[in-house]
Amino acid sequence: MMLIGITLAVMMAFAFWSWRRRQGLTTRRRQAELALRASEGRLRQLSSQLPVALFEYVATPIPGFRSISDGVARLLPGTAAEMLADPQVFFAGIHPDDLAGLVWRQAASAAHEFEWIGRSLLAGDGPRWLQIRTTTEFAADGRRAVHGVILDVTALKQTQQALERSRQELRQLASHREARIEQERARLAREFHDELGQVLTTARMHLQLLGRSLPADAAAAREAARNIETMIGEAYRSVKSIASDLRPAALNLGLTAAVEWVAARMLGAAGIRYGISFTQAADRLDDDYAIALFRIVQESLSNIVRHASAQNVDITLSHDRGEMRLLLEDDGKGFDVSGVDHAAHFGLLGISERVTALGGALEIDSSPGSGTRLVVTLPQVPLKADHADRSTNSP
Prior knowledge:
A hairpin with a 5-residue loop joins strand 1 and strand 2. Helix 5 runs antiparallel to helix 6, helix 7 packs parallel to helix 8 and helix 8 packs antiparallel against helix 9. 50% of the residues lie in helices and 20% in strands. With 395 residues, the protein is an alpha+beta fold. The strands form 2 sheets. It has a 6-stranded mixed β-sheet with strand order 9-10-8-7-6-11, with helices on one face. It folds into 3 domains: 104 residues, PAS domain (Beta-Lactamase), CATH 3.30.450.20; 83 residues; 146 residues, Histidine kinase-like ATPase, C-terminal domain (Heat Shock Protein 90).
């Protein structure tokens, strides 16, 4: 009997211990659940205060959101509950002009990763910019689930817009500066050619008259007069050269003549063969376009002579449906375009800025050992009159 009593006591003690253990596990489980719920609550509260929202969207069989965080109410008009009940509440909060870019909402979209930036219609001091990034998962049955995050990038967009405005203002300032420089060059060229040239010509005429009036036995004076006349002639040639460098007189005859002149002066003098094929529309360009294209050609030829070691150069200007296209090709040693430091290569930077100021596009195709191809495309270039095309080539 004593043995039975001891056994019952042990069994009762074990049962009590098991009950207390279960009670402890239940209590700890409840505490863990409560802690988890509290953590989820804090996370929801925190996410609702942040300019970010997470969502899961399915396009088939019935389009809609499976989940969306409460923070969406800070980004779009409407609450998460409203968007879960009706996905059109979400899309109605996107600016109509930007809505078409949300391709992930379309059932036919197969984009695995997607990024979109557009405007929200949420009321505010100005447009609110959102960025949506999504990834797509496909189930075995072909159903597509889109997981996305929505970020408020208004501050970043405003900074980018301010930076772009600043760049545009700098381009306008640079364009205005270049226009004033060209005007100053033209003025100085006229003064060098007309006024200083006239002074030198007059001085030469007076010197010749003086030489004729010298006595026959004044050999030293005559020799000095001849030397002075030679120096005046050299000065006159220098004046003409400086005037041409400032603004070639050939520009008054049109862009074609100016390019022919600069090619002969730079390429011809360097022993480089060249070909020029210009549409006659080149001679109908406004002065701003003509001067800009001339300077682009001049700078390009300067780079070819100094760096390319080319044997042949082709310069082409075509015109089609209002679009002007300048093409310069050489068979030189080429260079790595991606490795060009524009902070140190102001020639290419100047070409790029001139093209941008004209609203055009610049393309440079080159690699070591394969020559260089430079293309300038100017859309809708205004012309003065109508003429036939012409082509010229160097002998």
